[in-house]
Structure formats: structure tokens, C-alpha cells
DNA sequence: CCAAAATAGGATTAAATTAGTCTTGTTTTA
DNA sequence: TAAAACAAGACTAATTTAATCCTATTTTGG
């Protein structure tokens, strides 16, 4: 599967936050993990990565938690995936001996490069507000 | 990575066969494996699968080997992937508890369904003769 | 007719990747 | 100053993917 669990959790968490931020902006990992029924410490790791890339801000201490800081209709799937587990790639090759054992272009590269771009474009089209609207939670 | 090693080997093997079938039609696993520098027995497995799906024919015995039987400009990446390791899927979910722990639509499903179709269309566009022409081997 | 060269197919193992946890530390607030 | 939070790196577990092994069966040439 192309989309890793962590990438997926990240998106869902942000959707959760967006859909619940009328009354508050700061959410603890605990709350989000419980609501989405995922591991708290795994989610903490994910939030760390999102924070490092400046999508969210995280605050330590008793009243701490995370808060989305990037404009929510500018956060795309591309941004999130890039921050968490990296943009998923269809096929690594481009004469990389370790992967394809060839040292010439077998013909697939052009195709995969093109399709990869197509996929990335799609990822860039979808924003988190977009998804939040579609989510029927 | 979305495209498995086996799917990839399959494509490359068929390209090899297409590019070398002016003088003969039957190729042994040994020959192809050596030329592409991949494992003979692993490739044998791959050919089995292609044979089971009717893309190639395989003949036992001393003068045996495999032969492409489906019209080479009708064999697409889609066909090959489907035969070998299955069509790669971007993200399995659709409320599958084992995968997403949710039981509602988080909003990503619509997007992934659409993008999956897009990808599959691309796979259906590319034929093996197509690739063979582009290969610079 | 039998040895050698092929494929067939199921079982198994090995390697690599991905998912998740642990441990220790720091910050913040009541 | 204790409790509740996040930080970060090391580590482990689980899963998936890649590859091999083993035991047939088929075919053909000598
Ligand atoms: S897979 Fe390496 S050149 Fe095509
Ligand atoms: S990942 Fe399961 S509903 Fe979205």
C-alpha cells in the first residue's frame, strides 16, 4: 500500500482537529488518539514531525498540546505526507543498481516519472478543509 | 514503493522478449534471468503467474521455455501487474476496521478512489511494445 | 528408455520495511 | 514540586515482500 499508516493517521488527526476547532485550538495527543482509536505514543511521533515542518505548533506542559498553525486551506495531502513519512513513490529506479539491477533505461522510467507527477498533483489539490468537509464523522 | 520487484521483473522480462523475438519465439527462464541479472527461480515463479493468466505460454522439456501469446500491443502494464502481484493499491480502507480503525468515512476515501482510477487508467495506456520502443537497451 | 534440461507448484525462509513502543528528558502550570 | 504534557532517539515487533528449496512432471536427444 502506497499510503503509510502514519501518513494516514496524520491526515485523520488534522481532519479531527479542523472539525473540532470552533471552541478551542489546542488539542492533546491523548484526546486525538482516543477519539481516533489509535496509539497515543505513535501519534505523538507523528505530531512531532508535523511540528518540525511547521504545519502545527506543539506546546509542552500541563495545558499543552498541538495547534494547527499553517493556513488550513493551504495544507494539502502533499504537505502532510511530505512531513510525516515522505511523499509516496510509485517506483524507485532511474538506473539505481540496488533496485533494478540494470544500468540502462528499461523504458518504464519515463512512464513512472510522468505518473508520479500526476499523483503528486492530485495530492497537492486536496486540502485539509476540503477533506474535513467531506468527512461524515 | 508501489510497484513490487516481481511486477517490475515481469515487465522487464517481457520487454526483453519483445525486443529479442525477431529470430525466435521461445525463451528459457535461464536466458532471461541471466540477461536481466535477476534470480532464475524467482523469475520462474513470475513466468508461472503470467502463464496462468494467459499472457504467455510455457513449455516444459529440453526445448521448452516461455513464449508471449497475447497480442503484444494489447498487453498493458495493468495486465502484467494484475497477473503477477496484483494491481497496486494506493490505500486500502473503505471502513475496513483492520486498516483504519474507523467505521465512518474520514473523507479520504473519495479522493483515493478517484486517484486509484486515474492510476489504473495510466497503467492501461502503456503497452509492452510501447515500453520496448522506449527502452534503450 | 533414460539422463538432461526445462517448467509447475507448494512450503518455507530470509530480508526489508513499516508500525509501534520504551526510556529518558524537558517544559509548564496549578 | 508533582502531574500532565511534548521531544527525541533507540529499540522491538509485526507485517509484507523477496527469494529459495524441494519434489514433481514433461520433453527430447542419444
Ligand atoms: S527498472 Fe531500472 S531502468 Fe527500468
Ligand atoms: S482511512 Fe478509513 S475511513 Fe478514512
Gyration radius over CA of chain A: 18 Å
Instruction: Give the H and E element order of chain A.
Output: HHHEEHHHH
**Number of extended strands of chain A:** 2
CATH top-level class of the domain at 5-87 and 128-133 in chain A:
Mainly Alpha
CATH superfamily of the domain at 5-87 and 128-133 in chain A: Winged helix-like DNA-binding domain superfamily/Winged helix DNA-binding domain
Describe the global form of chain A. Answer: elongated
Average of pLDDT of chain A: 90
Largest sheet of chain A: 2 strands, antiparallel
- Name the chain pair with the biggest interface and residue counts per chain: A-B, 42 and 42 residues
Concise structural overview:
Chain A has seven helices and two strands. Chain A has 137 residues and is mainly alpha-helical.
Descriptors:
homodimer, 137 residues, mainly alpha, Arc Repressor Mutant, subunit A, two-stranded antiparallel sheet, 7 helices, 6% strand, binds FE2/S2 (inorganic) cluster, DNA-binding
Overview of this structure, please?
- The structure is a homodimer of 137-residue chains.
- With 137 residues, the first copy, chain A, is mainly alpha-helical.
- The first copy, chain A, has a domain of 89 residues: Orthogonal Bundle (Arc Repressor Mutant, subunit A), CATH 1.10.10.
- The first copy, chain A, contains 7 helices and 2 strands.
- Chain A has a two-stranded antiparallel sheet.
- In chain A, strand 1 and strand 2 form a beta hairpin.
- In chain A, helix 1 crosses helix 3, helix 1 crosses helix 4 and helix 1 crosses helix 7.
- Chain A is elongated.
- Chains A and B meet through helix 1, helix 6 and helix 7 of A and helix 1, helix 6 and helix 7 of B.
- The structure holds FE2/S2 (inorganic) cluster (2 copies).
- Chain A binds a DNA duplex (30 and 30 nucleotides) through helix 3.
